[in-house]
Amino acid sequence: MLLPLLLSCASPEPVAPVVRDLPQVTPGTPTAGVAEGFADFPVGVPLGGYTGRCKCFGNEGEYDDRRVAYVHRFNPSIGVQTQPKVAALWLDNGDQDLVLIKTDAIYAFEGVITELEERLGAATGRDLDGKVVLASNHSHAAPANYDQGITWFLGGDRFNREVFERIVGSMEAVALDAWDARRPAAIGIGQAKDWDPEDRVYADRREQFDSLEIFSDIPPGKYKDPYLTVLRVDTAEGEPMGMFFAFAIHGTVAGGDNQLWSIEAPGHVEAAIEDRFQEPVVVGFLQHGGGDASPGGRDQEFARMESIGEYAADEIMALYDATPTSAAPIRLETVTRSIDTRRDGIRVHRDYGVLEYAAYDPSPDFSPDEVLYDEAGRIVSPIDEFNTEMGGAFCGEDTPLIPGVSIGSESYPYNSCVEVDVIGDVIAGFFGLEDMPKPLPESLRAKTSATRIGPLPIRNAAGEEVSDEVLLAFFPGETTATYTEQFRRRARAELGYDYAIPFGFAMDHEGYLLIPEDWLKGGYESNINLWGPLQGEHIMEGLLRAVDDVLATDTIEPHDPLGLYMDTQYPDEPLPEHAPDITPEAGSPVTSFPDYLLVPLDGLPLELAPAPVVRRVNDIVQFVWEGGDPGVDLPEVYLEVRTADGSWREVTTASGRPVHSPMHDFILSTTPDPLYPFEVAQRHSWWLAWQPVSHTVDRAGLPLGVYRFHIYGDSYDGGATTWPWPASPYELTSPEFEVVPADIALAWDGETLTGSLEAPTSGFRLIDMEGSSRGANPVRGAMITAIYEDAQAPLTASEEWVEGGVTTWRVDTAALSGAVAISVRDEYGNAGLLELD
Q1: What distance lies between CA 270 and its chain's CA centroid?
Q2: Short-list 752, 765, 762, CA closest to 806
Q3: What is the pLDDT of residues 660-707, one digit of tens each?
Q4: Distance of CA 206 to the CA centre of its chain
Q5: pTM over 0.85
Q6: Which end of the chain is more exposed for a tag (fewer CB within 10 A), N or C?
Q7: Pairing between β-strand 392-393 and β-strand 613-615 as defined by DSSP bridges
Q8: For residue 272, what is the enclosing H or E element?
């Protein structure tokens, strides 16, 4: 049955006061600056997204007994597969600014935005109040304890002021680089729909929704946010500067046991896109309705992340190439508000009436009517099943998290809801909180933002080129597919925007954002928000109201003239006083095997230095050195190759970026000695692994030559009691090593010849989209030769196919009469020789 129409009547409250003599919104020529960098964190910080990493909930990812200064109850991170990236776009039109910052993180925190507005405004002299937008890629393998929201300690450990200051400083630096890089620009928007029909990139994971028919033109069944959006930024002369793109995907490939930092699936799509350019174009990923979208791909772990990038890149670049840009004047205006989410003010409008909660009844004898829907299938209001004063968590579970503790309803999905008051006490106990504020401050407001920009040239999802204004909307939580679709439809029907583009995981975090009809189906997504079925769309309505109040006119109104939408206030927590270790031996190679050193690749025997000769694909190169304390040292490892004149140069990617350790080419980890306690003096050994595979292009064809690792690090000088920690640099190079062709494994059964490039059992790099990072990979462009006692002759295969990563050729057995061996060489010079009986 089709559910009732979801478009609301326009909400009449609250009404902004009339303010006279306001400045006019003035269109102007666009100017843009873009920049990129890496987030500054210490290895050891807890990773976000999996409560199971907490020692209080599952203890996932405990690699050893180490203790570090940057965790409270979570297990510490141990190293880096990819370092979180920061990308920034600073856009202005001579009238207004928009600063868009994207980072690789589990979610955004509003406190970061407040700090950035102040710092960037002071540095540039611009009024940036409400004009800084922060979005995250939702990596479940990124550092997380920068958020003061107590609710989210269960997702990333207790807040750490040093970690907060370091991530804010990273974003500030990149944003100011974008400010300095501003120049006249041409911009445009591209959209595609149903661009991943086979779910190779991402897939719907929310089976609870499958039975619903919410929109008349979307039949029941599997449904994922179908849109792909590209924001293209060129110079006024048409040269590429930046590209920000969005679709829906979770960053959950590695799982909760992984404790290596990773930009996850979304970040690896960025990496694949970067190498489609011939220069370092700034690329940033934003989320659409990724709250209920799982990552696709093939292979396993980090190689699977790379494969998702390969599956996505062609479609994304095709849209980018088709996206028109213009340097014509645009209007630009942004509104930012923190929406009141206190229970008694939460409302959602439908064409049949207002949905709201019944007044809270504290009586122990209270019983709800347990009537969720009327005869027409519409939600009954007021809702008395959500009878909780401070919010309810873990709703929609099949069984209650805490048996016997609920908010009183026996109806699913309310029957498993636990009072936030109760959960708050549990959190306080887990994380050592003395003063537990009730209600939780982060539960009372939700920070949102929207930008009106245009007219812009748009390549729409129908493939047409149009010119129109665009509404960019930024939501504080895990926007789901029905939520983003509902927003697009409401923005069109109520405000007249044909191009309303929602971005989730931005500004702050309120858990999963669903529309009420979807929330009531229960499941995992329903259990991670605090204010029940109406919270998500209530926030949406608040943002729609803000757009109508502020962006619908030709004047520049104040964002919050009555002080109704103020930011959440958090306590000013001090910086920790755990100083790093002084490490006088930092920069020295480790030459004897220690009693213990963590090697985070399963089954890989420890080697302290590279072998003199290593094979492409087949081998893994290691190097170990003494470094600094992770509080100051995050070594940067650059891959260098020896040139013809004997000098060394940095290896670069296809886009001209250096191949270095923030990227996916390396695995980096550290081991303290002793493992604990961290308060005593420790030595810090750093371990590096590299697989001889190209960055993204011609993976099995890394250029042959002599290579080495060039390492730059830092060692603590002492003398400080809080961050920033004074440090001195160190530098060292590994022994050089020669990269030679890979061995091709061959077999002959009398009729067919098989061949494969065998990746090591501890491999972590994608080799081939039909192969395995830890097994067989196809031989491409093979030349097959029959070798005789006194001659050799090429063989032509009558048939060739790939199965299970192995290439099979059917060759003429007669041509092999008298042959003593068969050799195979692929297009890169990798070779195999098989002797015949």
Answers
A1: 10
A2: 752
A3: 999 999 999 999 999 999 999 999 999 999 999 999 999 999 999 999
A4: 20
A5: yes
A6: C
A7: unpaired
A8: helix 264-274
